[in-house]
Design a protein that fits this description.
Chain lengths: 95, 198
């Protein structure tokens, strides 16, 4: 199992579980946690679109040095929600 | 989705079941969203693979009785000769047929042709007349990769179909629990029957 596939599994299953836990009793959460939740949800939704779109690229169009497909297809579901949560966290603190 | 516990007070056991159904529906729905979106999109594309040109459609009638078909090896040779260089690797016309290049040969006696699919990235497919060995069509099978993505095989082999199995089981559970959440308040009667909880 490659690291990329592991990242895909985490992004596909662990991130939604984390979002569900964060979303539980949402209104009772701290404002910053709520902002992080919203950022992570937006990141995850964007990641779903990106990952599914890039996954449709047929194999004959893949290049050995093609890092974009790996990043978008395997890593986006993990990276974008985390990035969204972090951005929202700092935006909430600044605001 | 609001809590299913509002409205009339059904028996405790039923309330517990409804509560469990609510959380199963909620959690599983979120958990398998990515997988189900991918499976649904690839499924729609596969349903329309002919219309989308992902699978070549060759109109052809048998040019000779089936008994007069050429040997399978000659069909494969004709297909390899017609294949693009990128699909056949180091093999060149005049060499003996390299079966490691061939994924499958799909023989259609009623149409009088055989579809020879190669194992390259593009899944090149040559349609060959089984009586004359004439190549009728050469093109890539765009649906092969979509099928693998649909089943989960694209991630590394047959064992990865477990991913689509998980999504399918979760979908079935989500459907059943969703149906129950719709039905439960109606079965409980009284005020709750008029107030849909979902």
């Amino acid at each position: 199992m490659s690291v990329g596939f592991l990242a895909l599994l985490v992004g596909m299953f662990a991130i939604p579980v984390a979002l569900l836990i964060m979303g539980h009793r949402y209104r009772r959460r701290h404002a910053r946690t709520r902002a992080m939740f919203r950022g992570a949800v937006i990141g995850h939704c964007v990641a779903i679109l990106v990952a599914v779109t890039w996954a449709m690229i047929p194999p004959e169009m893949w290049q050995p040095e093609d890092t974009g497909r790996g990043l978008a297809g395997y890593w986006s579901l993990l990276v974008l929600p985390v990035a969204g949560a972090l951005v929202a966290r700092f935006a909430a603190r600044d605001g | 989705m609001s809590s299913p516990l509002a409205g009339a007070r059904p028996p405790r056991r039923k309330r517990r079941f409804t509560r469990a159904a609510y959380y199963i529906h909620l959690w599983l729905g979120v958990l398998v969203t990515v997988g189900l979106i991918a499976i649904s999109i690839t499924g729609i594309l596969l349903n329309h693979k002919r219309g989308l040109g992902l699978m070549p459609e060759v109109e052809h009638a048998p040019s000779a009785p089936f008994a007069e078909s050429i040997p399978v090896e000659r069909m494969a040779y004709a297909a390899l000769v017609a294949a693009p260089q990128s699909a056949r690797g180091t093999w060149k016309p005049g060499d003996s047929v390299d079966i490691s290049l061939i994924d499958r040969m799909d023989l259609r006696p009623r149409n009088g042709y055989v579809k020879v699919r190669l194992r390259d990235k593009a899944s090149m497919e040559m349609t060959v007349d089984i009586a004359s060995g004439r190549v009728l069509h050469t093109g890539r099978r765009g649906d092969v990769f979509l099928e693998k993505l649909h089943s989960g095989e694209a991630f590394g082999g047959v064992s990865y179909v477990i991913l689509s199995d998980i999504a399918a089981v979760a979908l079935v559970l989500t459907l059943i629990t969703g149906y129950w959440l719709w039905l439960a308040p109606k079965l409980s009667g009284g005020a709750g029957a008029q107030d849909d909880v979902t």
